[in-house]
Amino acid sequence: MALACAAVSACWLAACAKSEEHGEEAFAADRSVTVWSSQAQVRQPVATLRYGERVEILEKKNDQLRVRTALAAIGWTDEKALMDSALWRRARALADRAASLPVQAQATADKLVNAHVEPGRKAPRVYQFRGGTALEVLEHATAEFVPEASEDAAAPKDRDAGREQPEARNEDWMLVRANTETAGNVAGWVLRRFVKYEIPAELLDYSNQYRFVGWFELSRVPAGTPGSGAAPALHAPGAPPAPSEEQEAANSGGQKPQFLVAGIQGPEGEDCAFTLLRVYTWGAERQRYETAFVESNLCGSLPIRVHAATAPGGNASFSFTNQGKAGAEQRDYTMHQTSVHRTDHHPPAKGRPAGRGRGA
Known about the structure:
The chain folds into three domains: 24-90, SH3 type barrels; 101-145 and 169-196, Roll (SH3 type barrels); 201-342, no CATH class. The chain contains three helices and 22 strands. By secondary structure, the chain is mostly beta strands. Residues 1-21, 151-157, 229-252 and 351-360 have low confidence and may be disordered. Helices cover 12% and strands 43% of the residues.
């Protein structure tokens, strides 16, 4: 009998030890997660986890978890500060996909911004960017949002007469990535209104005419000097040749970028990521940017893929997916000198060629 009891006790202890050793895994969901010695008000930190560090869950009480870290420290932390293994795998898969996408715009987090694993406020959070964090914008999506009803929504109908109830609306979400000091490479979906686009100084005058979605450098040309008559490096046959290195040094003007910009007009929540394209080229003689190409009435999707000119006088190209009347279509464009042409063998959209000047 004693031997049987001893055997049962040994099995019970072995099972407990196994449970302690092989608990469910979880991962730190914030840049810094404190593991405490107990749940009491008077307690001591026993470990600090960095984003993504793995722990084993040993016990759960309400919203607190008792965990063991990789260095064998055992203590308590908030359940909300951890991601389960399934969410962590989704977060890493999203970061891996984001790493392969071309950058559409540079931005910063305008405040503390929650990054979600997919578009939508109810989607699980995978990170929280601090205000001022540098972000790279990659993709666009929309998600429906229903504002919370007022506190007296359950009041009698006669008291609610004429009161408009909240209606569902679409919100703009952007996929962003950031290389953070404490968490490394992180990606997630954030609300567009919480992101501040860092528009290049050369394009600020145009940013008042529509909302910028993305911008790209197509090429660079000599800056020249006012009234010099110096033509850009992308010059037409018969035009004056590009300034020599000595002339450029004398002018001390350096080079100016030429830009492709994607933008949108109208309210937020549109299915289209952008509805218009503009190409802005540098006019050396007038020392200002001029509109070289205009296309409107688009319903484009991000990302736009750009191949910038590799040398002065070379061609640039860009492409994207557009939702046309016949459905999704691939659009390809080439920029030669200061002219932009569609090259995917589809009939050009009805529109006007761009005029020179500052208009959009």
